[in-house]
UniProtKB/TrEMBL annotation:
Lineage top rank: taxon: Eukaryota
Subcellular locations according to the entry: Cytoplasm
GO molecular function annotations of the record: mRNA cap binding; translation initiation factor activity
Start and end residues of each stretch annotated as Disordered: 51-71, 95-163, 538-576
PANTHER family recorded: EUKARYOTIC TRANSLATION INITIATION FACTOR 3 SUBUNIT 7, EUKARYOTIC TRANSLATION INITIATION FACTOR 3 SUBUNIT D
Biological process (GO), any one: formation of cytoplasmic translation initiation complex
GO cellular component: eukaryotic 43S preinitiation complex; eukaryotic 48S preinitiation complex; eukaryotic translation initiation factor 3 complex
Native source species: Anisodus tanguticus
Family annotation (HAMAP family): eIF3d
Name under which the protein is recorded: Eukaryotic translation initiation factor 3 subunit D
Domain observations: The RNA gate region regulates mRNA cap recognition to prevent promiscuous mRNA-binding before assembly of eif3d into the full eukaryotic translation initiation factor 3 (eIF-3) complex.
Basic residues bias spans: 97-120
Compositionally biased region (Basic and acidic residues): 125-148
Length: 576
């Protein structure tokens, strides 16, 4: 029997691996070349001592004979070894690469996948700029494909749904945050709480009267949506509201919020995209806040739809672009449908956020108080946008606009269907925008509005996201509409009550409620007291962005002048 003799293994007292002294490593091996390989290569043999490359035709005769044992670069036998498998890898680097990772992501509508016209999301630019922009887009696209390719290769992306802004958390969860609880939405559906009628503590602001001629608009006599650049719209969070601070100092209640925040909680089970609400426990009080530039200031579009929106953030139909567009449409719509003759219904106090002399959008803030239990009262700032006078009776209105961006997505063309099949249009909207419509309804109920007016606003052309037309305006009584969309008031209050009770048990400090970006649940994190203080808002939305295309500076002033001229003409023709 042949014995196996183990050579001497030197002990390295200073660290890992063989010691530096070359005793352990025979010299002739230390200079042996290492065959370079890429990760996609199949590793075959490491060395082959039985062959010599020096006598191969065309080989380099000066080659070091020891190299040949390691060098398989010119060896056909090695290539055939892995040829079958390798062919599948080579395919990846051809133009078909994009489809290669298509297996890992849901099939997009063929219109959207790598469409060569994708780069036209901006309005026409000058020639040389277009060329530059195209180059940049191609670079971006290449980088994106490489990134996805690597992701898919490493398998990390295999189980994920589309790699999209939609499925990212609305706030970056920091490692030092402490998760206290997660509540699945399924527990919300069973909650119920009947809240007694609230009382009005204060009404601020001023309301303009609704122009009833808008009720008669049809797609055949549509009206252009105007722009209100110099009107100020306020999206002030709870703790920045001077009236709420005053009411808190006077101990008028223990819980404070705004209608936007409450409606987000009330309709949470319908939400798909991530959102977050900051909770502050101070003394015996509880404040629900939103961050600056929060998701809650924008309006989701097609949130509950089955059709995925394009993934590229810059696309005019991406979730982000649409939410910005919808926010602007809503603001402009709410100001356009007023009589605008200077008549205003003024209240106890002027708009608490306005500085003197600035033009303020028509809005009435109702500070209302609800009794949640013997010790807990909730005060919320609720908004109504307009008022209408009928037979000496005043009715408060909320004004909101649904927007159509491309009939191909919803499958319903508003211009054709609104007159004959309004029910079908609304049903489709309820399917695709369940959360947004429920939030608007709950806000109307909170503000005790007598009517909610829903405008149907569409793009002038599916690829033009700057110009819109109003195709119809329909009024609903909030209570009836809530019943129609299956929104249960006692369930809404049940959710608010349970979250208030939960937060009241927390120690003093700052917390954040975050809707999980992919699962139907909400999480509560404990955050440091200075979190969100100097929040860097990723993309502020200047009103100008809505007015001209983003390349406005580059276009030069003459283009702007022309645009303004056209705009003035449009306005004057409308007036005429």
């Amino acid at each position: 029997m042949v014995g196996f003799e183990l050579g001497s293994v030197p002990f390295n007292s200073d660290g890992w691996g063989p010691p530096d002294s070359s005793v352990a490593v025979p010299n002739q091996i230390s200079n042996a070349p290492f065959a370079p390989f890429s990760r996609s290569d199949k590793l075959g043999r490491i060395a082959d001592w039985t062959r010599s490359l020096s006598n191969r035709p065309g080989s380099n005769s000066k080659q070091n004979p020891t190299d040949s044992a390691f060098d398989f670069s010119g060896d056909d036998s090695f290539a055939t070894l892995a040829a079958d498998e390798d062919s599948s890898f080579r395919l990846v680097d051809t133009a078909a690469k994009s489809h290669h990772h298509g297996q890992h992501r849901p099939k997009f509508n063929p219109r959207w996948r790598f469409n060569p016209h994708h780069n036209r999301s901006q309005l026409p630019q000058r020639r040389d700029e277009e060329v530059e922009a195209k180059k940049r887009e191609q670079e971006k696209e290449r980088a994106r494909r490489d990134r996805l390719y690597n992701l898919n290769r490493s398998g990390t992306n295999a189980g994920q749904r589309r790699e999209s802004a939609v499925f990212k958390s609305s706030v970056d969860i920091q490692p030092e945050w402490n998760m206290l609880d997660q509540i699945p939405f399924s527990t919300f559906s069973k909650l119920s709480f009947s809240v007694p009628e609230p009382e009005d503590l204060l009404i601020c602001g001023g309301l303009e009267f609704y122009d009833r001629s808008y009720d008669r608009i049809t797609p055949k006599n549509e009206r252009r949506l105007e722009r209100f650049k110099n009107k100020n719209f306020f999206k002030i969070t709870t703790t920045d509201d001077p009236v709420i601070r005053r009411l808190a100092n006077e101990d008028k209640a223990t819980v404070f919020a705004t209608d936007t925040i409450l409606s987000t909680l009330m309709c949470a089970p319908r939400s798909v995209y991530s959102w977050d609400i900051v909770v502050q426990r101070v003394g015996n009080k509880l404040f629900f806040d939103k961050r600056d530039g929060s998701q809650l200031d924008l309006l989701s579009v097609h949130e509950t739809s089955q059709e995925p929106l394009p993934d590229v953030k810059d696309d005019i139909n991406s979730a982000y672009s649409l939410s910005v567009e919808a926010a602007y449409i809503n603001q402009n719509f709410s100001q356009q449908v007023l009589i605008r003759d200077g008549k205003k219904l003024s209240y106890d106090e002027p708009n608490p956020f306005a500085t003197e002399g600035e033009e303020v959008a028509s809005v009435g803030y109702r500070y209302r108080r609800w009794k949640l239990d013997d010790d807990t009262f909730l005060v919320a700032r609720c908004e109504v946008q307009s008022v209408v006078e009928l037979n000496n009776q005043r009715s408060f209105l909320t004004l909101n606009a649904l927007n159509e961006f491309d009939p191909k997505y919803s499958g319903v063309d508003w211009r054709q269907k609104l007159e004959t099949q309004r029910g079908a249009v609304l049903a489709t909207e309820l399917k695709n925008n369940a959360n947004k419509l429920a939030k608007w309804t709950s806000q109307a109920l909170l503000a005790n509005a007598d009517m909610m007016k829903l405008g149907y606003v569409s793009r002038v052309h599916p690829r033009d996201h700057f110009n819109h037309v109003i195709l119809a305006v329909v009024g609903y009584k909030p209570k009836d509409f809530a019943a129609q969309i299956n929104l249960n008031t006692s369930n809404m209050w049940g959710i608010v009550k349970s979250i208030v009770d939960l937060c009241m048990k927390l120690n003093e400090g700052k917390y954040v409620l975050v809707k999980d970006p992919t699962k139907p649940q909400v999480r509560i994190y404990e955050v440091p007291p200075d979190a969100f203080e100097n929040d860097y808002v990723e993309e502020p939305l200047p009103e100008d962005e809505q007015v001209q295309p983003p390349t406005e500076e580059a276009q030069g002033s003459e283009a702007n002048a022309a645009a303004n001229e056209v705009e003035e003409k449009e306005v004057s023709t409308e007036a005429a």
